[in-house]
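Sharing in case it's useful to others searching the archive later.

Someone asked me privately for the predicted structure of Aldehyde oxidase 1, so I'm posting the question and my answer publicly. Question first, with the sequence:
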Amino acid sequence: MSLSSEYFFRGGGCEVKTFQVFLLTIALHWNAREMKIHYSANACLLPICSLYGAAVTTVEGVGSTKTRIHPVQERLAKCHGSQCGFCTPGMVMSIYTLLRNHPEPTAEQMIAALAGNLCRCTGYRPILDACKTFCKVSSDDRSAGLCPLVYILISDDLKVTTDLFRIYEFQPLDPTQELIFPPELMRMAESQQKRALFFHGEQMTWISPVNLDELLDLKAAYPKAPLVVGNTSVGPEMKFRGVVHPIVIAPARILDLNVVKFTDDGLTLGAVCSLSLVTDVLTNAISELPEEKTKVFCAVLKQLRTLGSEQIRNVASLGGNIISRKSTSDLNPILAASGCMLNLASRGKRYPIPLNGIFVDGVGNNAITPEEILVSVHIPHSRKGEYVSAFRQAPRRENALPITNAGMRVLFEEGTDIIKDLSIFYGGAVSTTVCAKQTCWTLIGRHWNEQMLDEACRLLLGEIALPGSDSGEKVDYKKTLMVSFFYRFFLEVLQSLKTTDPCCYHGIPMEYRSGLQDFKTKMPQSIQLYQDIEPSQSPQDPVGRPIMHQSGIKHATGEAVYIDDLPSVDGELSLAVVTSSRAHAKIVSIDTSEALNRPGVFDIITAHDVPATNEFYYSDDPEIIFARNKVICVGQIVCAVVADSDVHAKQAAAKVKIEYEVLEPVILTIEEAIKHNSFFEPKRKLEQGNVDQAFETVDSIIEGELCIGGQEHFYMETQSVLAVPKGEDKEMDLYVSTQHPAIIQEMVAASLGVPANRIMCHVKRVGGAFGGKLLKAGLLASVAAVAANKTGRAVRLILSRGDDMLITGGRHPFIGKYKVGFMNDGRIRAVDAKYYINGGCTPDESVLVAEVSLLKMDNAYKIPNLRCCAYACKTNLPSNTAFRGFGFPQSALVTETWITGVADKTGLSPEKIREINMYKEIEQTHFKQKLDPQNLIRCWNECMEKSAYYSRKTTIEEFNKQNYWKKKGIAVVPMKYPFGLGTRYLTQAAALVHIYTDGSVLLTHGGIEMGQGIHTKMIQVASRELNIPMSYIHFCETSTTTIPNACASAGSAGTDVNGMAVKDACQTLLKRLQPIISKNPKGTWNDWIKEAFEQSVSLSATGYFRGYNEKMDWEKGEGQPFTYFLYGAACSEVEINCLTGDHKNLRTDIVMDIGCSINPAVDIGQIEGAFVQGIGLYTMEELKYSPEGVLYTKGPDQYKIPAVCDIPEQFNVSLLSSSPNPYAIYASKGLGEAGFFLGCSVFFALRDAVTSVRSERGLTKTFVLNSPLTAEQLRASCADAFTEMVIGRWGKGQSISG
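And my answer, the predicted structure tokens:
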């Protein structure tokens, strides 16, 4: 990995994602023979002391542009698997490690290798395309889509292609060319006598003993010293909770603790065996032993495969997982239920104890004393008549801590179904694994039948008491899972009994059997269709071709520079912010004395140190740099510490003491804001037709309310600033991860009280933004600049993931209230809607978001009589801000919700209601802008056809009839996405193009590269206009020194407006060169440039675009706020597990009208990435706050964005052909945001599945599904006897088993 980039994802526990990982190659000497093990690990977790004797390879060591690019790096880049590039080194290392161990991996191995990696930009499909090129693929797989499909479709004389890259261009993977293990390390390992290692640090000593006796002596001497192997428990404690351990003992080198031994009755595994090793050992044992003996092994292996990620399992130890006794352990419940034994040792004695003994008495049990060491774990063989199972449900299927898990075992009297012994253990219920011992004792002697099942469920709910959770986790869901898991175990055992003796046992009905199968992650298949270039187009003209991202190779090699990769400046200081712990309070005092006395601390910065502007009034309420007299949200910056290192700054920041006096009211929710009439002004309203009269004439009316949660941007690169004072004239260089350098310049200049021409803001690239690096980045840059100004030193501010999530806000939580009038034939005649958005504590962009939610609320539908109002609520949460889609994903979801409500009421299908009410001819929107929906209808029809919607719907209906505990759903959703920013000056743009005398071209413009490929597209534009190869053109950086007053890169407008400016500059240059070219038409580019210079022709030109003529009159409720419209449609199919609420995305087909694509690879990647981000908003990403306004979900442990396991198994994207756009550069369209909303097709497919469940169970009452539609909400909606036991809600008197 790029070690400097790793900073941004420092985390811990089994939830740390491998955004950036490094590879270890370790030589171990087992049984006098050398074994080299290659494994990937999270750099943020692995203590450097544990790497003694190891060879560490970072992404730079794998390959670089200076030496040799590795095939993994090349293919990721050329398959377009990199957008912002920040996650790419981690992807490279995960794939590279797999290939070192398996040069021809299976698709399953590749998917598993990437389970610990997250990407926010790509939607994963292009990354997986690169992976497939390494996989061993059979001919059957090839035809099924496990290789990139390359075929041509001829339609209306237009060539449509799927070829985004060419496999034959890739260099082959040659394992013989890989790095060898360093001979000096091999010689060191062979020659050095094994001895204990001691490493002394500033606050702790690391001791690594080599034998058990040494370890026991150390534990006797230091009983409180933790044992560290994988550091997945101790590491996060030290990093996030400030726990200091003076002594740490690392037992990984002790042979007794690494044992792997098969015995007559089971398997003994050393306590420090990694979970990956345990997985391999169990896999081999299952393949070699009789099935009867391996039921425990199978259950443990099932849990291991979803425990953390491969990077975590590579370092985490079996013993550590057990001894930590964490409630979230997936292993402890099944190991305890299976009767595993722990082999302990203390000075002078060794002895076994049953593992369940440390859990059976609950939280207070201390069966293992501090002086005792867990040496090994014995996992028994299963016996005849014994059945064992393990279960888990998590917020995400892979690489997520469980909400609830379970391990269950039953032993029957020989030849009967009478329970002889029963063990049930749950995790996730209380603070540790818990045993349902009373239930188990009561059920001994019972027959395995429905009466036993009913009694068992009621006993379990009575015995396992779940306390109310502070973290927002609902207890009802956990209780439902507990009984659902037991029911699943009941069915599994029934089916196994039938297999054992079909004559005596009937097994379970066929329609229940699918409920026994968990969802598996498969390698997705995909097709991407786009219109090919005209045959007459010049081979040198790159426009319309799938060109690789210009920084793609550098992303993959780790050479791409982000803010924290910039070298340290002499005397540089690190800054850590101190934030409010109260939502609304007066600051009584700030005590910085202890913080100032900490090592390395240079100074503390407060509002008093701001030379000029501390509050920015862009509206009635200010945006604030430092809180001065009061705080208005948890996470507001009160002061900042600057120190000689990031560690020292953070340690000192924790010592700042702030005394508060709580103020009232504390407003956190939209409902509370409405109650207190707390809003930002102005409120907005749009109206057309006569709504009240229309309601009097309709056949039916429905009313409802939809709640949509917020969303964290979760850009890969957190907010980052480097402020460097120049030393004279009050000049300062700012290197910022931002979408808007001009606002950075403006705010910093105002805060320092200097003219803007003294502040130079530079942006090379941004590691993701999505709207989150506009105003917030300006405030944070001002914090760093004020510190740099006061100290006279360079100051670096890099927010941790937790602080970033706490401070910066995200997408607005949203409540939509609606009243809809319609006719029996499905025609919607009147809508009255009110939208409330949670703006947070300052205005930011909230009023604009509210406005856009009104302007775009109609989505694809003509509503003749409409009244809609929007309110931006002022609350005591961190202010929410711009996010991809900017209000449209929320208001349009409300619209689609009442569309489905009308369908339910009329008995017509949702797609029929959509078709009936869709715009069909040239007409006006509700704000009186002309609209031609031809391409909307084309997208809809093509999507219906390409997805085979109706035939699949019939198949799904048949599936649902035959399956009780699994249901499928399908939905198709249209989209009209207006493009524009509402005001002309917001879409102006400039460019600067230099031609040097060697013929090379330097291009710069006002757009920011944040993953959307804008620099690549601008080079394509310049290449076409100047008629030179792209290789001649270079882009350096976006800077306020070259492009002044540039507008933000936002609203999908970057390519549109900057492209026009670049085109203008190039045409100016070409016009100057034309006389020279005319005189020497056969000359070369270099000849012309040399001649131009000698003739004193200027080879530098600016280009300018005035912007689109957009305007909106809110007083009249009409205008032309948008320049054009994008259209699309998406069809998605899902499958849900009614017992757990889990779901799988089976297939998505997207058709998008994006005009004429400048770069189909980039554009399709933007559509897919936006769609998957939309899946996150609508189905899984959930922000949770305490009643005091404290954000609980402050990192990847608690906040789940989509991973590889969440994308559709079949993911097809088609670009609408023959749809030129007359308003934008080369007839293209700005598309970065539009695809996001189509993720709601998954939401409505889930709703369709739930509708099928409820219809089958006789539940006819109208139901509401809010967003995100999580597993918890899905399970509650699939009401049955188990939910009735927990929450008293059930429709029919059906037996518990059917």
